[in-house]
Specification:
Length: 188
């Protein structure tokens, strides 16, 4: 959201060489030099749409240096051993432990999982992804509004469909998924 800060962060040498900032992009900028990279603004949008639009571009462009694949989430981030050691060494008060257990129970409830699933389905609808699954045994094509739904329907993981799509793009050959399905991912 703060473009000036982001640009300063990537172009300030002290940020790149700070041992606390060991991002993949920092190492690449130092190794290959600024002239081998470009920084572009792909779209201007309202603040309430920032996460949605970022997710759209993450899915569309699959940027090499973005290790986090979900916009607005640090899911997938790998902490350093030093940070993990600090986490392990901290001492929590009984009140804090009780609060953590209460929150964990609240957020791990079936109701919360259902709400999270609904939010993800809504995000997928806004991303405008459709997946056509052709059952080669019955010759019936079914269209799903998310990769997750298609994967659940044919009994595979969503990552299998991502991999299948990537292989299809590389080779141009439509192979059978699970020996029976032809998949076509439509990103509208």
């Amino acid at each position: 959201m703060d473009l000036a800060r982001r640009i300063r962060y990537y172009y300030k040498y002290s940020s790149l060489t700070n041992p606390k900032n060991k991002m993949v992009i920092h190492n690449a900028l130092l190794k290959y030099g600024y002239s081998n990279f470009s920084l572009e603004i792909l779209e201007y949008c309202d603040l309430e749409n920032v996460i949605e639009r970022e997710q759209y571009y993450l899915d569309l462009l699959k940027p090499e240096y973005n290790i986090l694949k979900t916009a607005g989430s640090s899911l997938g981030y790998k902490h350093t051993e030093k940070t993990l050691a600090k986490f392990r060494a901290r001492i929590l008060s009984p009140e804090h432990l009780s609060m953590l257990k209460d929150n964990q129970a609240k957020f791990n409830s079936e109701e919360q999982r259902a709400k999270a699933r609904e939010r993800m389905l809504e995000i997928n609808k806004r991303k405008s992804i459709r997946v056509e699954v052709l059952d080669l045994d019955t010759n019936i094509t079914t269209t799903y509004d998310s990769i997750r739904k298609a994967a659940e329907s044919i009994g595979c993981s969503k990552y299998a469909i991502y991999w299948y799509e990537k292989q299809q793009q590389k080779t141009g050959v439509v192979n059978k998924l699970k020996g029976r399905f032809a998949i076509k991912v439509l990103r509208l």
